[in-house]
Each structure stands twice: as C-alpha cells, then as structure tokens.
Amino acid sequence: MNARQTMRRLPDGRRLHLGDGPIDLIIEAWGARAAVEAAYAAAMARFATILDELCAELPSLRAPSGEAAPKSPVGLRMARAVAPFAPADFITPMAAVAGSVADEIADAMSAAATLDRLAVNNGGDIALRLAPGQSFALGLVDRPDKPSLFARATLNAADHIGGVATSGWRGRSFSLGIADAVSVLADCAAAADAAATLIANAVDLPGHAAIARAPADSLQPDSDLGPRLVTRGVGALTPQEIDAALGRGMALAEAFEKSARIRAAALHLAGRTLTMGAVAALEAPMGRANAAG
Amino acid sequence: MSAETETGPDKIRCDACPVLCYIKPGMAGACDRYANDAGILVRLDPHVLLKRAIDQGGDLVPFMEDAQTSGDLVREREVFVTAIGAGTTYPDYKPAPFIVGSRVEGVDMVTVVTEGIFSYCGAKVKIDTDRHLGPETAAVRVDGEPIGHVTTGEYGSQMLSLGGVNHLTHGGKKEGRVTCKALLDLCNGLPVEMQIDGGAHVVVEANRPPIVNGVRETRMRVGCGSAAIGMFAKQWRELVDEVIVVDDHITGVLSEHQAGKFLGVPATGVKMRGHRSTPGRYFRVAEAGSGWGGTNLVDPLAIIAGFDPKRAWPGLRLLMVSTTGEHAASYVLDDELKPVEQELSPALKAAVERVQDNCEPALSSVLFMAGAGGSLRAGVTENPVGLTRSVREAITRVTCGGAPVYVWPGGGITFMVDVARMPKNAFGYVPTPALVAPIEFTMKREDYAALGGYLEEIRDVGEVSALANCRAIGARQDNPWPLRPASIEDA
User: Nearest residue on chain B to A5, judged by CA atoms?
Assistant: First the structure.
C-alpha cells in the first residue's frame, strides 16, 4: 500500500474503506467471517494498483468511445460498458469509470470467497452481488450533501441486478443535463454508470434561460467533455418544464430498457420522481426515511 | 502534500495522485479533496471524527496507524463528530450541516456541528518570557501590517492580543488579508513571525518555545528576583556571602531581603542602582531588554554602584544569577572591594541548575477567541436565544473541534479555546476575510427539542461516520470527552 492510499476498516468494524486519489470505496460483504475476511483481503490486493493502471492510459480513456483501445482490466470494462451507447451519443469510457472500478473489486472479491451478499460503493455507483435467495434493500438519494431518499427498491437475487449508479449535475462529475439524480439498475455497475450518465444528460431543457452552463474544459481543463456545456445551476422551473425535461430522460431510459442495456431507472428533478423498468419494488416513497440497508 | 507545478497564471497541476488534474482557481480536482485556492494547491480537509482513544498515549493519533489492524471495533458512543470539515450553511437560515444523534449511557445526545465563519475573532497569545517584547499597546506587525498589539503582561509572560474585527475587516485590504493569514497559521499550529513596534522580533508557534530576536526561549523564570531569594535563600546561604537575582521586574538582594535577615545573613554593603522598593527588592535596575533576567544587561555588575567599605570585606563571595538561571556569574571582592569574576564552583553550578530546574519550559500559547453570532445560532435552532440561554445554563456544552472551551460570562456565546488541544488544521478562512472554525453544541435530545431544534435533521452517528469523506482520529486524553453526560462536569 502506498502513502496516498487509504485502506481501513470503518468504525463499525464491518465495512472496508479503500481510497486512492479520486477513488473512494465503501465495501461491505456478508457471509461467514472467514469468507468476509478473505474477500476483504482480495479487495485490498486488487485495489492496490487500480489507480496506477488507469492513469497509465488516461488519454485513451478520455477519448470518445471507439477511438482508442484501453488495455487495463478496468479500462476494458469501461470501454465495453460505453460501446453500446456510442453510435447514438457522445460518450467516453470515463462515463463508466466509477462503476467499472466497483465491478472489478466486486468480481475480485467474489472470486476469492463465497459470500451471501456483497456491495462495493464507489461514491454512489455500486456493484452488487447476491447469492441465490438473498436480497438488498436499496435507498436512492438525490443530494449527496443532504441525503434524503427519493426512491427505494428491494432487489432480489432473481432480479440479476449487478449494479446501481446515480448521475446528476449536483454530483462529482459534470452533467450535460439538469437532473438532480438519475439512478439506474443494470446487470453490472459499469453499464449502470454509463446509462445513468446519458439519461441524466437527456433530462434537459436546451436553451432554457434559468439554466446556467459553462464549457467543461473552462472548469476542468482536462475534462473528457472538452468544450461541451455542462450544467452549473438550475433556476426555478414550472411543473410543465419539469415534466418536459423528465420526459426526455424517460424516453431514453425506455429505449435503453427495451434493448436490455438497463433494468430500471428512477429520474429525479426538482422534487418530482419518475420510475420505470422491470423491478417492481422500485418506488418513490411519500415521506422521507433515514437510512437504507 | 508534495510540490505542485505552476502551469499558467490560473490553473495548477495537482500531483497528489497520478490523475494529475489541472485545477482552475476556485475549483477542486476529480477527487474533491484538493483544490486551487488563488493559485495554491490546498487540501480540503475531510470531515474529522474524534475517536475516543481509551488506550492511546494521550495524543492525537492518525487513524491510519491503528487501522492497520483490521477489525477496528469501536462502539458508536465513542465517536464524536467534530465540526472540522463539516462545512457551513452561512447565512445559516438552514439547519447546520450535521445534527448528529448518539446514545451515551442510556441518554440520547444530540450534537449540532457546524463550521462558523467568524469576523469577530482573534487570538490571545501568552509568551513565556521575561524579555521586553515592546511597550504596552505597541502594534504587532506581520509583513508590515498591524495585526494586533501588546497588551498587559502577566507573571513571567508577555501577552499579545491579535486579530479582531478592526484589523480583519475595518482596516486596509492588505491588513485584513495579512491578519487573517496570521491568525489562521497561529491557530493551525504554524509559526508566525511578528515585529513589535519599538520592540522585539518574535516567532510565535502554539505550544512551542517562543523565539525572541532570534533566540529561542527555553525557560520561564521561577519567580521574580525577590521570590527567587525567598525560595533559595537557605541553600545559597551556605555557599556565598551575597546573592543578587537580576530581574527586570524586581531584583532581589539576599543580605537585605527579609529571607536573608531571617537566616542571619550579615550586611555586605552592596550599593544597588535602581529604585529600592522594600528592603532587598529593587525596581528598574536597568532598562528592559533581552539580556540578563529580561533587562538589557550584558554585564550584570552595571547594576552595582559599589560596596560600602564600612561593611564589605575583601574576599566577599558574590553570586549573580538571573531569574531563569540562564545567566550566572560568581565574584570575589579584591582588596579594593572590586568584584573579580571567578569560575563557578561545582556547588554554585548545582545551585544555578536548581534554579533552572525549577523553571517551567517557556512556551507560546494561543487561545482562539470568537463570538458565535446570531445567524450561526439560527443553524442550531429556530429560536437562537434559546441556544444562548442553554449554553449559559450549562445544559448545552460547547466544544471546538472536540476541545473544551471557556465561555465568557455575559451576553452572547463568546468563547476561548486552546488551539493546541484541537486537532491539527482545524481552522480555515473565507476571503471576507474571516476565520472558519469548528464549533459543536452537545446536549440531550429532549433539551434540543425544548430549545426549538431541528429534530427532523438529526442523523445517526453511525450514518455520519460512514460518509466516505470522514476521517477518524484519536481523541486527546487530556480533553474531557465531549459526549460525557452533563452531570459529570468538567474536572
């Protein structure tokens, strides 16, 4: 472990926290104690070199999908995850970086031990692995700075959901759209990450005066989005405008679901939430709740 | 943090990790942990949690060290969420960033955690030295800008009053900026160089020895010259005929002093310069300075006008020593009753060392002092005066980064805290300029409800600890645990 990395058990004694540069993972495995320890050891071993592997091929990862061929295991996951979306939309492998890292660690853990359940949370993009008969209760949060649930879902092993990812303009990555949060359930975290990015981009009101935008590279000179306008602020919107913006996102989400690229999605904008997809349990609760487990 | 490379007038390249982000001014890198603050790469401190360190050696322990052992089982009640890195909700009409609930010995406790932005704040600095640092009310300058002044001295220490709203926001632009930076550095435990008008050049660093005119202070005087005579008269009596303890405040003369008389020390006929106060005690034997005992003396004999031939005798043994034992010399009177310096005998050396040993280490200490304004209190409760009253009645405990504070009597919540008892780098600033300091209010849940608190915003301590940008550190053993029930009051 090098000096810049964090590898520690959280104070609850159960979860593992791995941090390196922009990667921040909260990991929890359930199962026999020895299996959990073996899985955590595998996670740490795999994690040790991930950031260096990615940084070695950053230019390829920031190039539009198909223009370069990443070679690292995580880079390959990223490229594979965004490729199905590339013909229609601008996307670079970076759109799937968080989910791909989560998947890579989750698969390393699954290979090392037989677990009941496993969650690798990479800043809100989560890789999940469920043994038959197991389930997860999931809470979706719109504002990371002030968490409150806007939707919950119960995931069963039979749903074959391997990843949950959330994208929105308030999050850590830039968004071309105005969604507060778009959460996507998919077969793996990388696919969910890429799809959430694109659906969040689509939740938009192009040219609307109340939306402040700035070229991505004026904010982050090395952004993979180059001069594309990213959302910096959203003013007051009418209910009709909110519906129109969410409608654009829903149309894309439904197209993704039809082509089996995602399983379900929840779209959240200015207090309104729309959900769609195969997971019946995905619903927007009326009140607010405290925690998800 | 390692060095960063400038790549232009605006953006900088962060080399904290191999992503090597280019970061624009006012923006953070991909990690949200490093940012460009007006061309300087700064670390955005993660939210700091204090972990009660039952078995640890009493100092702050970086969490990483004990995290090497996996299975770090800590019960929730032993985690206290500090306000360091919590952020602020200024102008505070919204609830504070963190309102954290925990159960302590069967009682539901609530800690409201926020980082306050303080324009009304400053540092009270105590510098353990007898040396004259500058006349009272003289300006204290950093980079030529006035940031405060010399205030009334204390026993064995000089006092500075730094910062305050007049220097921060009511003076010139540069004055405000320099004051803010100096306060920030002092409070974060960094050394700050100061020049006092008509006085000394001082380097002040919290909980470290002061450096006065390039000389590091080691000892705080054992007492004034007169007190030193009282303390050591009996031991000295056996070794010499006369002792003069040189002190800028009160210089003591053994044979004339009450203690010497009591022990039957015969008069020596020594004639002192300066102003005699009571027998054996002299004021103003010399000017203040950084020589012997806080005077400007290089040769201590300058304070002796002569010896009365009727009383003095050739061969009279004289010891001169400063109040810290830092300076000492022994003399024997020759046939003309002139003092001739001798090498210190082993017994006298031991006596001087005894003075040194009785001096405490000289330190600079920095107390941060600030007032929690109306809007900060509104982040805690819808009825801000309720918080003030609750603090006043000791129902609500105030801490600063987990460290205990002294709340001044009278109106408002004006408090002082020893920055050395706070975690490192607990302070920040805003360009206003004003300091950002952590402040936590802890009380029972029912008391929080009674004062109109934001009950629906209370989050479980476990939930907050799980946030990825939280950093746990060991709590200092010498600080009372902030979550202890109010019935167990500060010792």
Answer: B17
B469/chain A closest Cα distance in angstroms: 8
Cβ distance of B19 and A22 shorter than 8 Å = yes
pLDDT band at residue A136, thresholds of 50, 70 and 90?
A: confident
Per-residue model confidence (pLDDT) at position B94: 46
- Closest CA relative to residue A93, chosen from A76, A105, A71: A76
- Whole-number Å distance between alpha carbons of B381 and B387: 7
Q: Cα–Cα distance between B442 and A271 in angstroms, integer?
A: 32
B108/B102 Cα distance (integer angstroms): 6
- The DSSP annotation for B363-412 comes to -EEEEEEEEE-HHHHHTTBSSHHHHHHHHHTTSSEEEETTEE-EEPSSSS
d(CA B227, CA B155) in angstroms, rounded, equals 12
Contacts of B440 (CB under 8 A, 6+ apart): B80, B81, B82, B83, B111, B112, B113, B114, B398, B399, B400, B401, B402, B482
Residue range B452-480, pLDDT digits in tens? 887 777 777 766 665 545 666 666 667 77
Within 8 A of B29 by CB-CB distance, chain A residues are 22
Whole-number Å distance between alpha carbons of B162 and B175: 12
Position A68: which residue type? A
What are B375-397's pLDDT values in tens digits? 677 777 777 888 888 888 888 88
Which of left, alpha, beta for A145 (phi over 0: left; psi -120 to 50: alpha)? alpha
Which domains does chain A possess? 6-277 (3.10.520.10)
User: Using CB atoms, which residue from A52, A145, A291 is nearest to B18?
Assistant: A52
- Residues in B closer than 8 angstroms to A8, CB to CB, are 63-64, 67, 70, 72
Q: Phi and psi of B162, rounded to 5°?
A: -120, 150
Chain B residues touching A52 at Cβ < 8 A = 18
Tokens (6 digits) for A8: 């520690």
Positions of chain B with pLDDT under 70: 1-9, 33, 43-107, 374-375, 462-477, 483-491
A151: pLDDT strictly greater than 80:
no
ipTM: 0.81
B463 membership: H or E segment, kind and range: helix B461-465
Residue of B17, B64, B465 lying closest to A11 (CB–CB): B465
Contact list in B for residue A36 (CB cut-off 8 A) is: none
Based on DSSP, count helices (H) and strands (E) in chain A, helices before strands: 8, 13
